[in-house]
Amino acid sequence: MRTKELKVSAIMDGTVIDHIAAGKAFTVVKILHLDQTHETVTIASNVPSGVTGKKDIVKIEHRVLSPEEVSSIALISPNATVNIIDDYEVVEKRLVELPDTIERILRCSNPLCITNHEEVRTRFNVETKAPLAIRCHYCERSMKEKDVLRVLG
Amino acid sequence: MLHDVISIRDFEKQDIERILALAEDMEPLARTGSDLAKGKILSSLFFEPSTRTMLSFHAAMERLGGSVIGFSDTDTTSVKKGETLADTVAMMERYSDAIVIRNPLEGSARLAAEVSRVPVINAGDGSNQHPTQTLLDLYTIRKEFGRLDGLTVAMLGDLKYGRTVHSLAYALSMYDVSLVLVSPTELRMPPEVIRHLEETSVPYDEIMRLEDMPPVDVVYATRIQKERFADPNEYEKTKDAYRIDRSTLTLLGDAKIMHPLPRVSEIAKEVDTTPNALYFTQAGNGIPVRMAVLALLLGVVA
Question: B210 with B157: CB under 8 angstroms?
Answer without folding.
Answer: no
